[in-house]
Amino acid sequence: MSTLAWIIGSSLLMSAIALVGSVTLLLKPSTLERIILPLVSFAAGSLIGGAFFHMIPAGITQMGSTTAFYCWILAGFIVFMALEQLLHWHHCHRADAECKKPLTYLILIGDGLHNFIGGLAIAGTFLIDIRLGIMAWLAAAAHEIPQELGDFGVLIHGGWSKRKALLFNVLSALTFLLGGLVAYMVSFNINIAFLIPFAAGNFLYIGASDLVPEVNKHGDLKTNATNLIAFIFGVGLMLIIKVVLE
Description:
Blueprint: H1 3-16, H2 29-63, H3 67-87, H4 101-128, H5 130-157, H6 162-173, H7 175-186, H8 195-215, H9 221-245
Helix pairs in contact: 1-4, 1-5, 1-7, 2-5, 2-8, 2-9, 3-4, 3-8, 4-5, 4-6, 4-7, 4-8, 5-6
């Protein structure tokens, strides 16, 4: 299968994950509340583990341990930080999050930009190495599932119909494909190796700055232990994938 086919296929599959939000309609609020934080913890572990075990080593192989390499990691981190601040964007992972209707539009805009940048970064990894692309996609997908569960709940809570919420969630997710195609087209003219450390910075920001604080807000020992185990499992999965692929 060609690299372009991998990029298009993985992008469409990532966009389809937006449909997982509809699961919130089938679950009791108490059930969703019980599973969402472990999912967020698992996603955080997957993103951080993916950055350390896959993205950073692969980036060093491509670019060397240079100042420019580490600047691109910071650039990836800062871009997502700026995006979140600019749009006042918060994932609202909890189903009972109090989000007003105007915020629903900001969430969709933020998700669209987030997915476009993610598409650029993930496609860049596929262009360097298919195996690295698969790993990066898995880590990103682990993050998308709890995010889409939360975002769909927020749209419904903000007054959107179920059909409209699903439609716009999917449209927002399709910007991932747009980002992937842009990365593929520009790769013929420029060296896109910088997208690997850039993606690592994205992963580190989302995992450490966005997701970990969300699960650290709870003082219950059992809840914290469950979340920690889920986080370690996410990191461990990335380590296992690295060992298997090498």
